[in-house]
Design a protein that fits this description.
Blueprint: H1 2-41, H2 47-69, H3 77-82, H4 85-120, H5 133-136, H6 138-159, H7 163-182
């Protein structure tokens, strides 16, 4: 049962990562258009700047759970690898619990703020006047998904004999698959 839930969650995070990649591609296109139009045609699009800021928030918070589950986040592997396996596991459990709690608090606080923005229909005080809820809602959604991702990671630390090796193998297998596809 847990494995099916984890697999479904991993698929959801992969879809959100793909959506984030599409947003990055679109943002690259409109920034390129804006730079070229401003420099060669003298036509500026100031709302592209606002749209890029909003998109960066969405990309960051929607892709983060997938990055964590793929073990492609920033961490100090050199330190972790020199520690005894039992200490690695215990450290991983403590870090996962603390990170889970941090994400839950972030979800709770930003979720309350997002609800307030939605309830009062607060507008962004920018060139592109949209309800503040739209750029902001990605933060509680992403924080909630990241909290779940830390629970998945905690589950792996508790159930695996050598979770760090499993994380490395999982990250490496994806890289090997991508390299084989390119060749």
């Amino acid at each position: 049962m847990i494995n099916r839930l984890v697999t479904g969650f991993e698929r959801l995070t992969a879809v959100l990562a793909i959506f984030s990649a599409i947003l990055v591609l679109a943002m690259s296109a409109w920034i390129t258009y804006d730079v070229l139009a401003r420099n060669f045609l003298g036509v500026g699009s100031p709302w592209f700047f606002d749209l890029s800021e909003y998109t960066l928030v969405w990309v960051t918070f929607l892709a983060a759970p997938w990055v964590l589950l793929q073990d492609r986040h920033v961490r100090i592997e050199l330190l972790v690898e020199v520690l005894p396996k039992s200490f690695q596991r215990n450290l991983g459990i403590v870090v996962s619990i603390l990170a889970f709690l941090t994400c839950v608090v972030l979800f709770w606080k930003t979720g309350a703020a997002a609800y307030k923005y939605w309830d009062t229909n607060v507008m962004m005080p920018r060139i592109w006047r949209i309800p503040r809820i739209w750029p902001y809602v990605a933060i509680p959604v992403g924080s909630g998904l990241l909290a779940i991702a830390f629970l998945v990671r905690l589950h792996r630390y508790v159930t695996s004999k050598d979770p760090e090796a499993d994380f490395r193998a999982n990250a490496m297998s994806d890289q090997v698959e991508q390299t084989e596809k390119q060749e």
